[in-house]
Amino acid sequence: METSSSSSDVKIIFSTDDVSESPPVLDEKLRKLKDLLLKSDNRICADCGAVDPKWASSNIGVFICLKCSGVHRSLGTHISKVMSVILDEWSDEQIDSMIEVGNFYANSIYEAFLPPGYSKPNPNSTYEERAEFFRNLAIRDMLSSDPYVVLTLGQQRAQTTVIKSNLNPVWNEELKLSVPESYGALKVQVFDHDVISSDDIMGEAKVDLQPMIAGVMAFGDPDLLADMPIGKWLKSTDNALISDSPINIIDGKVKQEVSLKLQRVESGEIDMELQWIPLNQ
Ligand SMILES: [Zn+2]
């Protein structure tokens, strides 16, 4: 027996840019940074709007205030690399990302993705309010994510193509894996392709294939059946599901919609459609 799973409408968001250090040319760099800070949008914190930010997230590309820098720092450097504008040594690459993104561009993205009725923190917001804002942000790495998805089932591995610099990549690719007699969970991993260093993991999740296979076993040949639900993988605190994942017969095919929240990462979701293909087809 075989299942094929095609991922589609995949939303991924991260900041996992590797930053390589180059020898400091301090004056020149500091001048560039100070020029950037003179731009009106960079004169207020990208997150809360406090005036005169002296900190930055060099991989995200935004200038932030001291209080917000604490929230960024708590997320770890793989999410946000917090640097002092004045005290730290900046690489050319880091300065470039500040030039390419900056608070204006970042804010236009944030605003487009803020949930309805949700407002940004202000300079008086508590730490919790700032952290909450960050959790709700869907977008972080605006420039450097080249994501691809790897599926692993037992010894088998299949992967999608790499999508260059995309915030909301859509793969729309079909990957086939055969389900062995005894199977474990289907592992879904998203990586950021990196030509220089090894690829960074951008999150992972597991799919329990048991509900689909139980449905197939119980109902038999889907070709002979009308469209109907044959099972459901239920969202729980133990799995990565965003919502219950229904398994249906549609046009003689067993299909399952799966929406996963990526684990081991600050944010990111992935939608997939699994399809069961009996071996005789
Ligand atoms: Zn702030």
TrEMBL record:
What range(s) does the C2 domain occupy?
A: 108-223
Under the heading SUPFAM superfamilies, the entry gives: ArfGap/RecO-like zinc finger, C2 domain (Calcium/lipid-binding domain, CaLB)
The cross-references to Gene3D superfamilies, in alphabetical order and at most eight, read: Arf GTPase activating protein, C2 domain
Gene Ontology MF terms in the entry: GTPase activator activity; phospholipid binding; zinc ion binding
What CDD domains does the record tag this protein with?
ArfGap (cd08204)
Domain of life here?
Eukaryota
Keyword DNA repair appears in the UniProt entry:
no
Q: Which InterPro entries match?
A: ARF_GAP_AGD11/12/13, ARFGAP/RecO, ArfGAP_dom, ArfGAP_dom_sf, C2_dom, C2_domain_sf
| Coiled coil stretches, renumbered | none
Keyword Zinc-finger attributed: yes
Location of the Arf-GAP domain: 27-136
Query: What SMART domains does its record include?
Result: ArfGap, C2
Q: One matching Pfam family, short form?
A: ArfGap
Report the PROSITE patterns cross-referenced here. ARFGAP (PS50115), C2 (PS50004)
Which keywords belong to this entry? Answer: Calcium, GTPase activation, Metal-binding, Zinc, Zinc-finger
What is the name listed in the Swiss-Prot or TrEMBL entry for this protein? ADP-ribosylation factor GTPase-activating protein AGD12-like
